Automatic annotation (TrEMBL):
It holds the Pfam family PhoD_N. Transmembrane segments: none annotated. It comes from the Bacteria. It comes from Variovorax rhizosphaerae. Residues 42-138 form the Phospholipase D N-terminal domain. This is Alkaline phosphatase D family protein. Signal peptide: none annotated. Residues 151-482 form the PhoD-like phosphatase metallophosphatase domain. The lineage of its organism: Bacteria, Pseudomonadati, Pseudomonadota, Betaproteobacteria, Burkholderiales. SUPFAM superfamilies: Metallo-dependent phosphatases. InterPro entries: Metallo-depent_PP-like (IPR029052), PhoD-like_MPP (IPR018946), PhoD-like_sf (IPR038607), PhoD_N (IPR032093), Phospholipid_Metab_Enz (IPR052900).
Length: 515
């Protein structure tokens, strides 16, 4: 069994954050300041773990919500260190990287040459200022057949609608990985009973999107979860504009204007995420999908379900993608992932399988008939608007029964456990879990009841609570816990497990267990 070390609880220096970070061993501030100010206000992060390394991230921003983060235009040398222990007595790598205004003084270090399957600690230094300490972990060696895997997955964290107590709980969990499935930031203000406010209006340019990401990154619980575990990140729509597809947005009629806005949004996303430099966007285009292998136990196929999406079907003028139906919905050329990404996924699924394969993607994959009775209605922004593409994917997942396919999803602000069937009333070919939302408002129990009644393959559904999911994988099986906060409007809310499920190797489908 893997032992997960934690940092000691040293005294926190820096009164502004002391009250909120007291429980976070990964947010230990230091006395040094950046020319009188702390440049590490957005914390540290790691991501994209491989057996020999990962990506480390930070951004220098002493005034994070001001243009340029308060750094000016001059480049800054940033030193970094990686150690085998939290006190940095055994430093294994160190170096320097240049932070430039072109990338908002963000910093990324792409580590290689580390040992597989072990923890490392890291930190940054700029001038006389030192960052918080982060902890990361390399993936197991590719031939490792016995190491289990445990990861959290989350999505949808509208800043105004609730606090991030779920991330405080996540930071304390013994995890190998966090997978974020999109809607990391929200471009717009909506919902009720706001507990805090966005700064500025709806972003449309690079300074606006930089400010929005910086605002979210100032949250101490989100910083703690980033500092505690390596992350894999993808996006959905709210990082740019609600319900956009390819070059079309329901709120920006001109495709050229929208693509200019998308380019700014992608640039700001890249600057604030622990992803490698080769993912740097080219205008409005950026490749975020990829495969991440964790020994012989787990393959994570991280997908992009937004950038290449065929335009919505069954729409009149530019109405939002409502629940309806039309022949266009089942046109075979329609794709949610796009042709190139579909082809990439098909090639990856032909590779030798690990014990478990997880397709990590944005939105509920299971079919959901949203109309009671014999008439059928669908939400066109989700997989039901791309039924042939879903069929192709399920066929590919079912082609090799050794693969033990699982799908993890976000977007719908609801905890869902579902059997994925190729045919109605058929046997499951895969199993899906939707991890709720960190803070974004979801459907009430009354709204969920008719959906569950109409769609029996949805084995569990709850949208009236906020939280995230934990998935544990080993040779014996898969276990998934749904964890929810008691009250998302309270920063110090308790978090507890509300449901547990299991999946047996070689037998797709949800087994509902007691909580």
């Amino acid at each position: 069994m893997t032992t997960f070390p934690t940092l000691s609880r040293r005294r926190i220096l820096g009164s502004a954050l002391a009250a909120t970070t007291l429980g976070h061993p990964f947010l230990q501030l230091h006395a040094q300041t950046w020319r009188g100010r702390d440049p590490f206000t957005l914390g540290v992060a790691s991501g994209c773990p491989r057996p020999d390394g990962m990506v480390l991230w930070t951004r220098l921003a002493p005034d994070p919500l001001q243009p340029g983060g308060g750094m000016g235009d001059a480049p800054v040398d940033v030193a970094w260190e990686v150690a085998q222990d939290e006190r940095f007595r055994h430093v294994v790598q160190r170096g320097k990287v240049l932070a430039t205004a072109e990338l908002a003084h963000s910093v990324r270090v792409e580590l290689k040459g580390l040992a597989p399957g072990r923890f490392y600690w890291y930190r940054f230094t700029a001038d006389s200022a030192r960052s918080p300490v982060g902890r990361s972990r390399t993936a197991p060696a590719e031939d490792d057949t016995s190491t289990p895997a445990r990861f959290a997955f989350a999505s949808c964290q509208q800043y105004e609608q609730g606090f991030y107590a779920a991330y405080r709980d996540m930071a304390a969990q013994p995890l190998d990985l966090v997978v974020h499935l999109g809607d990391y930031v929200y471009e717009s203000s909506w919902g009720s009973r706001h507990v805090r406010k966005h700064v500025g209006g709806i972003p449309t340019d690079l300074p606006g999107f930089r400010s929005r990401h910086a605002l979210y990154k100032t949250d101490p619980d989100l910083q703690a979860a980033h500092a505690a575990h390596p992350w894999l990140v993808t996006w959905d729509d709210h990082e740019v504009a609600n319900d956009y597809t390819d070059d079309m947005s329901p709120v920006t009629a001109d495709p050229a204007a929208f693509l200019a806005m998308r380019a700014a949004a992608y640039q700001a996303w890249f600057e604030h995420m622990p992803v490698p430099m080769h993912m740097r966007p080219d205008g409005p285009s950026m490749t975020v999908y990829g495969r991440y292998r964790f020994g012989q136990m787990l393959d994570v196929l991280l997908m992009d379900g937004r950038q290449y999406k065929s335009h919505h079907a069954c729409l009149v003028k530019r109405n939002p993608p409502r629940a309806t139906d039309c022949p266009e919905r089942v046109a075979p050329e329609r794709s949610l992932f796009g042709k190139a990404q579909e082809a990439w996924l098909a090639r990856e699924l032909q590779q030798a399988p690990t014990r478990w394969t997880v397709v990590a993607q944005q939105t509920l994959m299971a079919e959901v008939d949203r109309k009671a009775g014999p008439e059928r209605g669908y939400w066109m922004d989700g997989w039901d608007g791309y039924a042939p593409a879903r069929g192709r994917l399920l066929d590919a997942l079912a082609a090799d029964p050794r693969r033990n396919p699982l799908v993890v999803s976000g977007d719908v602000h609801t905890f869902i456990a579902a059997d994925l069937n190729r045919e109605p009333d058929g046997k499951p070919v895969a199993t899906e879990f939707v991890g709720g939302s960190i803070s974004s408002d979801g459907p009430s129990a009354g709204a969920m009841a008719p959906l569950l009644a109409e769609n029996p393959h949805l084995r569990y559904g709850r949208g009236d609570v906020r939280g995230y999911a934990l998935m544990s994988l080993d040779a014996r099986g898969c276990t998934v816990d749904f964890r929810a906060v008691d009250d998302v409007k309270l920063a110090d809310s308790a978090v507890k497990r509300i449901a547990r499920f299991s999946v047996e190797p070689g037998a797709p489908g949800v087994h509902v267990e007691t909580t």
